[in-house]
Design goal:
It comes from Ideonella livida. Helix content is 18%, strand content 44%. The chain has 107 residues and is α+β, with helices and mostly antiparallel strands.
Length: 107
């Protein structure tokens, strides 16, 4: 009986850990659909997140690219870096130059 309870506790803890580590989409985005993003400096871009949060497709001034999740809240690829968390809010960089910061999904 004790081993069953220990197993049940371990299974529930592992389940919580797995759920808490799943990536989340930025507020307002619907997986699989492009959303227009407006930034504080007047720049815009479009982004489409995969359902599992593994990648995001970006359309911006310098073209489009598929960015892979490289860390919590960071997507990179083809010279682009999209940051979804942090002091700059939602921010897009191209070759380390700011393409937009403090961005929000257009309503």
């Amino acid at each position: 009986m004790k081993s069953f309870l220990a197993f049940a506790c371990l299974a529930s803890v592992l389940g919580l850990v797995a759920c808490s580590s799943a990536p989340t989409l930025p507020a307002g985005f619907a997986a699989g659909q492009f959303g227009r993003v407006n930034c504080e400096d007047g720049k815009t871009f479009q982004a489409r997140f995969q359902e599992d949060g593994s990648s995001v497709r970006v359309r911006a001034l310098h073209g489009s690219a598929e960015l892979a999740r490289s860390a919590q809240g960071v997507y990179t690829g083809e010279g682009y870096r999209l940051v979804t968390e942090g002091a700059d809010g939602l921010a897009l960089f191209h070759h380390d130059k700011v393409q937009g910061r403090l961005c929000q999904l257009a309503r």
